[in-house]
Amino acid sequence: MNSSLKEEFEYYKENQEKLVKQYNGKFIVIKNKQVLGAYEDTLIAVTETEKAGVEIGTFLVQKVEPGDDAYTQTFHSRVVIA
After folding, report:
1. Which residue, 3, 56, 59, 62, is most buried by CB atoms nearer than 10 A?
2. What is the H or E stretch that residue 11 is in?
3. 9 Cβ neighbours under 8 A, 6+ residues apart
4. What is the CB neighbour count within 10 angstroms for residue 5?
5. What is the DSSP letter of 67?
6. Could you tell me the CA-to-CA distances from 5 to 25, 26, 33, 56, 82 in Å, in that order?
7. Are the C-beta atoms of residues 28 and 20 closer than 8 Å to each other?
8. pLDDT at 71 > cutoff 80
């Protein structure tokens, strides 16, 4: 995970309890230690955030759930290997 996304993940962990109260079960987009949006799934989160002009790879998409099991990393790429 690049250092800026690591900072975003640390923000999530530090604020997890508050975020669960507000966004439980949603996928949130975090950039610059701020929640930019909450969505029903990761694809919608990435697509809508990109449409808003935010560059892919500069934000974190995190599913909001209580507990340590919520600490997951998912990496998406548009690379096609043929």
Report:
1. 62
2. helix 3-14
3. 1, 60, 62
4. 17
5. S
6. 21, 19, 10, 12, 29
7. no
8. no
Greater pLDDT, 42 or 68: 42
Rounded distance between C-alpha atoms, residue 61 and residue 15, angstroms: 15
Buried b (16+ CB within 10 A) or exposed e, 26-36: bbbbbbeeebb
| Side chain identity at residue 28, one-letter code | I
Interatomic CA distance for residues 34 and 37, integer angstroms: 9
Q: Extract the runs of DSSP E, i.e. beta strands, from the chain.
A: 27-31, 34-39, 60-63
- Which pLDDT belongs to residue 79? 62
Identify the bridge partners of residue 37 per DSSP, sorted by sequence position.
Answer: 29
pLDDT surpassing 80 at residue 14: yes
Q: What is each CA distance from 17 to 53, 65, 75, in whole angstroms? A: 29, 9, 24
